[in-house]
Amino acid sequence: MEVEQSSMESQQKKFALPVDSEHKATEFRLFSAAAPHMRAFHLSWISFFACFVSTFAVPPLIPIIRDNLNLTATDIGNAGIASVSGAVFARISMGTACDLFGPRLASASLILLTAPAVYFTALASSATSFLLVRFFTGFSLATFVSTQFWMSSMFSAPVVGTANGLAGGWGNLGGGATQLIMPLVFSLIRDIGAVKFTAWRIAFFVPALFQTLSAFAILLFGQDMPDGNFHNLKKSGDKVKDEFSRVFYHGITNYRGWILALTYGFCFGVELTVDNIIAEYFFDRFDLKLHTAGIIAASFGLANVVSRPAGGYLSDAMAKRYGMRGRLWTLWVVQTIGGVLCILLGLMTSLSASIVVMIVFSLFVQAACGLTFGVVPFVSRRSLGFISGMTGGGGNVGAVLTQLIFFKGSRYSKERGITLMGVMIIACTLPLCLIYFPQWGGMFCGPSSNKIATEEVYYLSEWNSKEKEKGFHHASLKFADNSRSERGRKLDTSTRPSDET
């Protein structure tokens, strides 16, 4: 017993933060940059922020770009759809890449591969080339998946929602920050002496360079897991060399992942849609100046400073008291309220009322994103990356659908489209009630009365007998033990054996 205690103490001393049996941090210290946990957090959100800035650098300058390239409303709508459609499959691929190669290499590689598209935006000369650069730049949004995978690999169950919410939220902040950054950079370049049709092209070198530097920072300072990088851990035998077919199978056959992908399409997907259309909406509907419309539009994305992190924190807080059922109920309530506010936004006729409703709407829809990824880490242990990628890809599918249905061409006015989008949010959030974990329950049903419905049985079911004989399941066993907190305070007290330490 003394030997075990001494071993635990020596492991704790390896890390600046307290850790569990998987060496995941059990505390989240925002103002720390300690390796590896908090350093991974800061590298992940900054790099995702850079990708968001690059992807949405176009919308605040659309009034200038459309005049230069003679773009129609349909051209702009198609390009907006292209900017988020590419990341649908990129996010699923990123999830699998994280499972097999680790979040560090997967993330940095994608960032470097998509950076040239941002540079080439300066060379766009037609509607087709404009659509293509937006399409390939949008692939970088798949770094969201590596961000969430990385946080789920570094932080334990009691704080994983907070870590995921802050990393994703502060990364998404780039969608609001770029509404301020790009008009400012454009104005500075124009004031230096460049004509406006040249100034907007030069401005794109700023987000492109930022994105490139963030990739090198990840490669130089990042680490995949608390104990090291995937390559070294596999080489030493400390990590299983998993098979793509098995990771894919256990991810694609878990219905909970499909439901979260659908619902995420109408919180994060709606956020992407609004990022694409909101500046132009205020510019055209209320006859505002470009800079003024940009500032108003920026407030939507900038709400991510607090909204998405608040969603992650709320998910963890509810789980401590009510377990997984608390996470699911809170997600449904918050996202449904977001849908109601979206309907109201489309009905507002005054500038001031529209701004107020838009800001409140942003708080709820972005909090729902954080709440979603409070649930995702518990769907699967073996296929965590794939489930994260599938859910993230669902967000992009939602963005494509809402833009294709409501904001492509002139079928609906933008205000009408926003209202209908709100109705769709409410309808597509309802399937959350179908998610059920045998060991924890669902929204309307408690955990199974079957005594074998435990965390160990749930997570070890992803490994066959031969794999268990080789010891491949040990990491899942540790995760199952550390996820007992999802029972909630009352259930955990009543079901945990009295002699358990």
TrEMBL record:
<dbReference type="GO" id="GO:0016020">
    <property type="term" value="C:membrane"/>
</dbReference>
<feature type="transmembrane region" description="Helical">
    <location>
        <begin position="105"/>
        <end position="124"/>
    </location>
</feature>
<dbReference type="InterPro" id="IPR036259">
    <property type="entry name" value="MFS_trans_sf"/>
</dbReference>
<feature type="transmembrane region" description="Helical">
    <location>
        <begin position="131"/>
        <end position="150"/>
    </location>
</feature>
<feature type="transmembrane region" description="Helical">
    <location>
        <begin position="355"/>
        <end position="379"/>
    </location>
</feature>
<feature type="transmembrane region" description="Helical">
    <location>
        <begin position="45"/>
        <end position="64"/>
    </location>
</feature>
<feature type="transmembrane region" description="Helical">
    <location>
        <begin position="328"/>
        <end position="349"/>
    </location>
</feature>
<keyword id="KW-0534">Nitrate assimilation</keyword>
<feature type="transmembrane region" description="Helical">
    <location>
        <begin position="202"/>
        <end position="222"/>
    </location>
</feature>
<keyword id="KW-0472">Membrane</keyword>
<dbReference type="Pfam" id="PF07690">
    <property type="entry name" value="MFS_1"/>
</dbReference>
<keyword id="KW-1133">Transmembrane helix</keyword>
<dbReference type="GO" id="GO:0012505">
    <property type="term" value="C:endomembrane system"/>
</dbReference>
<feature type="compositionally biased region" description="Basic and acidic residues">
    <location>
        <begin position="481"/>
        <end position="501"/>
    </location>
</feature>
<dbReference type="InterPro" id="IPR011701">
    <property type="entry name" value="MFS"/>
</dbReference>
<protein>
    <submittedName>
        <fullName>High-affinity nitrate transporter 2.2</fullName>
    </submittedName>
</protein>
<dbReference type="InterPro" id="IPR020846">
    <property type="entry name" value="MFS_dom"/>
</dbReference>
<feature type="transmembrane region" description="Helical">
    <location>
        <begin position="418"/>
        <end position="437"/>
    </location>
</feature>
<keyword id="KW-0812">Transmembrane</keyword>
<dbReference type="InterPro" id="IPR044772">
    <property type="entry name" value="NO3_transporter"/>
</dbReference>
<dbReference type="GO" id="GO:0015112">
    <property type="term" value="F:nitrate transmembrane transporter activity"/>
</dbReference>
<feature type="domain" description="Major facilitator superfamily (MFS) profile">
    <location>
        <begin position="40"/>
        <end position="441"/>
    </location>
</feature>
<feature type="transmembrane region" description="Helical">
    <location>
        <begin position="170"/>
        <end position="190"/>
    </location>
</feature>
<dbReference type="GO" id="GO:0042128">
    <property type="term" value="P:nitrate assimilation"/>
</dbReference>
<comment type="similarity">
    <text>Belongs to the major facilitator superfamily. Nitrate/nitrite porter (TC 2.A.1.8) family.</text>
</comment>
<feature type="region of interest" description="Disordered">
    <location>
        <begin position="476"/>
        <end position="501"/>
    </location>
</feature>
<feature type="transmembrane region" description="Helical">
    <location>
        <begin position="386"/>
        <end position="406"/>
    </location>
</feature>
